[in-house]
Fold this protein.
Amino acid sequence: MKNKISALKSKIWLSPPHMSGYEQEFIDEAFKTNWIAPLGPNVIGFEKDIELYLNHNSHAVALSSGTAAIHLALILLNVGCGDEVICQTKTFAASVYPVIYQGAKPIFIDSEKKTWNICPELLEKAIKERVALNKKPKAIIAINLYGMPYNVEAINRISKTYAIPVIEDSAEAIGGSYNNIKCGTFGDYSVFSFNGNKIITTSGGGVLITRNKEDKEKAVFLATQAKEKGAEYSHSTIGYNYRLSNILAGIGRGQMKVLDERVNLRRRNFNFYYEHLGTYKNISFLKEPKGYSSNRWLTCVVFKSKKVREEIRLLLEKENIESRPSWKPMHLQPVFNTFPSYLNGTSDELYEKGLCLPSGSNLTLDDLSRIVKIIKSYFEQ
Ligand SMILES: *Cc1c(COP(=O)(O)O)cnc(C)c1O
């Protein structure tokens, strides 16, 4: 009996790592060959795996984090002091930090209801206004939030019309697609994260995707302390120590082998929640518009009010289940709230009423049933 209770109360995390078993072989190989450092076969192999997976005009640079990848994309676009960069307000802070690293200024844009990502109408309005102020933005950082692609057609049209490049922050979205084109291929630069909470992980890491080989070479140069050719270390550019280690890249190679399975399991989670909670009038889900496929990194449900959201979150917490409010928008963050923003209320509403439910690919059907039962009990009390 005692065992049964503790088993029932075992911790359920929001989005924990899920190893496949293949990772260890690549790590063992690195140890056997003493390829602990520097860059080695696992880094090159991991980059190849990603390029093959995207299979579309993509050159991958393995880095220490997704944040580093966004930073390098901004540097490659010559974003510098005083420049303006358009950012989706509904995201995680790491999408925006690198704008500040460069001494540039973020301009925040709210989301559309259809995808929860950057709203094309507001984006165009903001660009027109910034241009009229003689402050044409240097870049647009668009997010594939929770794995749902942004409105690629509309954003690419705007990017072209105003000649402003797009950095696609696909940190959460490897495995998603738009009209059968994979996330990670939409932007002038694209970014993946392999942080511990993402759909696949290197324990910590990221990848920058460039659209040509020259840009990849520049990114590798900047990420390895900007060392110029020659035996002596000569530097005429400021560099960064941003490369991924050969050990961690080994984890990434093992994880790439099961990416499709992981996506299917995350989608299974969403479908399970939708099947069991979708009939409640007070709970809404983000559906996939036609042509959009989300990897369903996290299943985020939207309740009727902040009060209900919080009560359910605490109820789950009491049962040792981790859930988390939907991202607090950047225009509300103390570090960013003085920057200009173009709002329509969508991100505020999602933040207040949205809750991310446990979404790991290692959840069992028992875990999912346990979570659903608690939420149902709230509405049926
Ligand atoms: C996780 C995440 C990042 C940052 O990636 P790290 O690898 O943790 O640096 C950036 N943007 C979004 C949207 C993320 O979710």
